[in-house]
Amino acid sequence: MPAAKAEKRSASAECELKPEDDDEDFELLTTQKPKRARKSKGGRPKKDSDAPKTAPYAWSPAQDEYLLELYKEHGKDFALMTEKLNQKFGVTSKMVSNHWPALSKRLGQ
Prior knowledge:
about 0% strand, about 110 residues, about 60% helix
């Protein structure tokens, strides 16, 4: 085993460039940095249209009735109505604001 290691060392020593071999080449190799290609950023930027399409939320008749009850009870306090709808059904404020105009138009309010 020690003989194999000695052979590897001598082979690698032969490949190494030393300053006394050729001073100009040694300076060029040690001072110049290799040119490297820029890394890709992963292609084109994503657009909103690339997002997966989700089905619109379908309100149940029970949710519509509860929303109307809350409207009769609290008026146009949509923050309070949304909070109660969220506790009971998990509905967000955005869902309520999107659904209310259609519901009020359907009911003629």
